[in-house]
Amino acid sequence: MTDRSGSFDGVHRRNLARVLSLVHLEGPLSRARLTALTGLNRSTIAALSAELVELGLAEERAPDPTNRVGRPSPVIAPHPGLVAVAVNPEVDAVTVAAVGLGGRIEARERIEVDHLVTPEETARLIADAIARWRTGDLQHGRFAGVGLAVPGLVRASDGLVRFAPHLEWREVPIRAFVEEATGLPTAVGNDASLGAIAEHLFGAGRGVDDLLYLNGGASGIGGGLIVHGRPVGGKSGYAGEFGQNRPGIASVEDRRANGGVLEDEVSRSRLLDAVGLRGADEPTLAAAIRSALDASDGAPIADELARQRRILATALANAVNVLNPSLVILGGFLATLADLDPAALRDAMAAQAMPAAAEDVDVRVAALGEDRLMIGAAEAAFTELLADPLGAAG
Questions:
Q1: Do the domains spanning 8-78 and 204-367 agree at the CATH topology level?
Q2: What are the 10-residue block averages of pLDDT along the chain, 394 residues in total?
Q3: CATH classification (class only), 204-367
Q4: Is 231 helix (H, G, I), strand (E, B) or coil?
Q5: Do 253 and 272 touch, CB atoms closer than 8 A?
């Protein structure tokens, strides 16, 4: 095969990738719209579209109704049968989802656990879920690969989980375990970094080139960065561990963990304790907090929310001073903290940041909700396919 960088073969592969990426990110597009977006001629777009259909990566649909003169253009859409398996192992549950191109959630299971899952057990749970789907709703599906969103330090070069403290995983080759259990190519990344990518491509950060994302989950607080439109992982992929920073706490009365890090103070488990729950998914926790606030004895949860919001605002102000983002996105239980009193959080953050850095910063909650980590993990699984549809599909 000829050199892929500058040869006809290389240009052809890049054009295939460009068309597939467009329908992945933008949704179904007419061939006329693809022609306009790519600058390629109509016959080239027709040939590329036909090839993606032949590869089983896209489907051609009837043209949308139009009042324009002339023959309407067929629509190219991601193939609905193509999915990636997305996984988020946590201390209280392993969530597994089948995600199609474009961020469609086709199936989801939250497998609750009463113990810390081992890497080997996680791989078995994934394989079991795939087996159930293959004999059920996704029996005609095509599985492109597996993506894992892990709450810990993940080495970018090989997906080795160096340390996931809350899961008690150290130096774990989880990619190899999952590939052996499922027979599918597997990608591994930090959960918050993948959440940042998902929100940037499909959610609250769509179209925003400089953003900070903080994710609050059962295992603590992680972060992800998008700078100049590109994810920033650092030298080895460990960037964004905001939860391990030492928080600035103005009042000693606000401190709960002597010498603790941010995720010890701004904590999902403390919110669960405040509403009397041992465990819950994100919507259940948010609903329980709102119910507790509405009750006659809601002062304790209100006080805890305000305490955590004060500390979070300081952490965000520090991040704004260092990174100068145009947008801060909060996901997980941090979204609940923000959503209950967005003005208070925004004002407290701005009061502690440099005025020039804070004046153009917007704060939003994650638009993808509990789908964000699933969509981010799927994006990791789809990476090779989107970069080279011909090679990956072959």
A1: no
A2: 61 96 97 97 97 96 66 90 97 97 96 96 98 94 97 96 97 98 98 98 97 95 97 96 92 93 96 93 94 91 96 97 97 95 94 95 95 98 96 76
A3: alpha beta
A4: strand
A5: no
Cα 150 from Cα 167, distance rounded (Å): 9
Residue 128, C-beta contacts closer than 8 angstroms, at least 6 positions apart:
none
Give me the CATH code for the 8-78 domain, please: 1.10.10.10
> Cα separation of 254 and 200, whole Å?
33
Dihedral (CA of 174, 179, 184, 185) sign = positive
| 169-172 vs 82-89, strand pairing mode | unpaired
CA distance 222 to 189: 12
- The number of angstroms, rounded, from the C-alpha of 382 to the middle of its chain's C-alpha atoms is 13
User: Which amino acid type is present at position 265?
Assistant: E
Half-sphere exposure of 121 (CA within 13 A, CB side): 14
Q: Which residue has the tokens 């970018």?
A: 156
Alpha-carbon gap, residue 159 to 176, rounded angstroms: 9
User: Which of 357, 27, 381 shows the shortest CA–CA distance to 212?
Assistant: 357
CA–CA distance, 303 with 319 (Å, rounded to integer) = 25
d(Cα 228, Cα 208) in Å, to the nearest integer? 9
CB atoms within 10 A of CB 112: 11
Main-chain phi, psi angles of 258, to 5 degrees: -60, 120
Q: Give the 3-state secondary structure of residue 295.
A: coil
Token pair of 175, please? 């990619």
